[in-house]
Amino acid sequence: MPPVLETRDLTIRFGGHVAVDSVSCAFHAGTLTAIVGPNGAGKTTYFNLMSGQLTATSGTTMLDGEDISTLGAAGRAQRGIGRAFQITNLFPNLTVAENVRLAVQARGKAAASLFSLWSRHRDWIDKADHYLEQVNLAGVRDTVAAALPHGDKRKLEVAIMMALEPRVFMFDEPTAGMSVDEVPVILDLIQKLKDEGTKTILLVEHKMDVVRSLADRIVVLHNGRLVADGEPAAVIASPVVQEAYLGQAPKAEAAHV
Amino acid sequence: MLNSLLSGDYPKSRVLSGVLVAILVGLAFAPFLFSGAAAINTAAKICIFIVLVASYDLLLGYTGIVSFAHTMFFGIGGYGVGLGLYAFGASWGVLAIGILIALMVAVVLAFLIGLLSLRVRAIFYAMITLAVASAFLILATQFSEYTGGEDGRSFSVPPVLRPGFRLFEAPVFGVTINGRILAYYLVFISAVVLFLLALRVVNSPFGRVLQAIRENDMRAEALGYRVVYYRTVANCLAAAMAVLAGAMSAIWLRYTGPDTTLSFAIMLDILLMVVIGGMGTMYGAVVGATLFIVAQNYLQKLMGTASAATEGIPLLPKLLHPDRWLLLLGVLFVLSVYFFPTGIVGRLRGEKR
Q1: Which one, of A41, A59, A138, lies nearest residue A97 by Cα?
Q2: What topology does CATH give the domain B2-352?
Q3: Which among A150, B60, B285, B335 is least surrounded, fewest beta carbons within 10 Å?
Q4: Among A53, A71, A87, A91, which would you mutate to test the B interface (most chain B Cβ atoms within 10 Å of its Cβ)?
Q5: pLDDT digit string (tens) for B260-272?
Q6: CB contact under 8 A, B218 and A53
Q7: Beta carbons of B343 and B288 less than 8 angstroms apart
C-alpha cells in the first residue's frame, strides 16, 4: 500500500542551524507512528514542515503520492492534514464551542457564506458539540477559551483537530502538562482513532509508557536527523537510541509530570 | 423579525439598548424633533459617519487590519457622485452610474492593495495604505481641472432632493416636507440598511472567520482558511461600504472636496470614533459616531458658555475658550482609552456580566 504522507530529504535551515536534516520517512494509513527524541531534536519543526507552517529549505512532502511542498498550511488542511499544536494555539477570545465550530465550518460547504447567519448552521453546532463531548468539554462550551485551565485548553486543541475530520492526525505532545486523571481521556481518543484502522496518526510524545502502549512504530530524531525507525521494541533496545534519547528520558519525563 | 434584522446580535446590555433606541429615534425623527439647519446637518453627519465607522470597524475591530486608506474610499464615493453630477447634470441615472463607477474603482483598488500587501506584517500594511492615501489626496488636489482641486466641486442634486421641492402642500406636524428632508431620509434609510447589512456580515460564517483571523491568523490558516483571501474580501467590502458613505455625504452636502472626504483629519476622527465606541462590536460605531459628532458640534458652544462664566479666574477662561475644544476632546479621548479600553460598548456589556 502506498504511503499517505511521505517526506523525502526534508531539510530546513535557520541561518547556520539545520533544524531538520534530510529526513525521509513514510507514514501509512491505519498506523500510529510515534516521533521521539530529546528536546530540540526537531520534532515540532518536522511537524511544522509537514503541516505547512514552515516552508522547507529543500526536500519534498508528498500526500497520496502528490507533491504538496508548495502548498501552504490552509491548502494542506483542506486536503486532510490535521494538526494539534504543542503550545496551545486557540482563538482566545472566542468561546470553546465557537473554537470547535470554526473547525467544523472549515470543512463545510458554506464556509465563506456572507449573509447566512452563523448561529443558524445547526449541523455545525451539533457536530462541534459532538466533538466537545468526546473530550469532556461540553460543560464549558460557552466559556471563553482564554479562561480555561491548561488541561482543558489541551483538550480543546485536540477537539479542534478532531472536528476537522482529517485523514492525517498530527498530535504534538497532546498530554503535556495535563493532570494525571485527564490524560486517559486523550489517550482513549487516540486509541479509538487508531482502532478505526484507516487513519494515519503521528504522535510526538515524551512519555515512553504512552509511546509503548500506542505506537506501532517509533521514529527517533536527534539533532534534526532521523537516527532510528522501526518496531517499538527494537527501536527502544537499539544502542543508538539508548545513547541519543533514553539516556535523557528520566529527566524529560520528570519535566512533564 | 427583530432577530433576523439584527442578525441575532443583540446589544446585550440594557443601558446600551436604551442608548441605541434613543439614537435611532432621535435620528429617525430629527427633522421633527429639532429645528434649524444646524441640527439636521448634525443628524445627517451622524448617519453618514455611522456607516463609515461601521465599515472601518469591519476592518479594524473584526479583522484586525490597520488601514489608513479608509478616507480614500470615502473620497472615491464622494467624488464619484460629485463629479458625475457636476459634469453630466442632476439626474438619478447619473447618480447611479457615479456610485457604480466609484464602487468599481474602490473595490479594484482595495483588491490590489490587499493582494499586494496583506501578506506582509501589519505595520507595513498600515504604512502602505498611508502612502496610497496620501498619493490619492495629492492627485485629487492637483488635477484641479477635473476635481476642482482644493476648492472641490459644488453641484446640484436631482430636483426631488432640492430645498425648493415640496412633497405635500401643507406642513406635516408643523414641518414642511421639502427636498432637504427627503434627502435626509434618503441618507437615514441608507444608513440603517447599510448598518444592518454590516451587522449581518459580521455574524455570518464569513464574519466568524474574520474574527478567527483577528484572534489567531496562524491557527485560522491551519484550519484551512486562506487568510489572504478573507482579508482581501474584508478589505473590498469595507471599501465598498465607505464608498456608499461617501456618496451619501456628497448627496447631503451637494459638495465634494478634499477637506470633507479625503483629509487625514477625518481618518483620525474615524479612528477615534471606533475606539471610543468599542472595537469589534458594530454598535460601537453608532455610539462612537454619535457621541463624537455631537461633541464636535456642541462642545464648542458649551465651552463658550463655560469660558464666559469663568471670566476673571486666571487661566481657566483661556483653557475653556471654544478654540481649545480639540484639547478637551483629546483629554477625553485619553481618559476614555485609559478607563474603557474596550470602548463604551465593551464597558456597558462588561458591566452586565
Answers
A1: A138
A2: ABC transporter involved in vitamin B12 uptake, BtuC (1.10.3470)
A3: B335
A4: A91
A5: 889 888 998 999 8
A6: yes
A7: yes
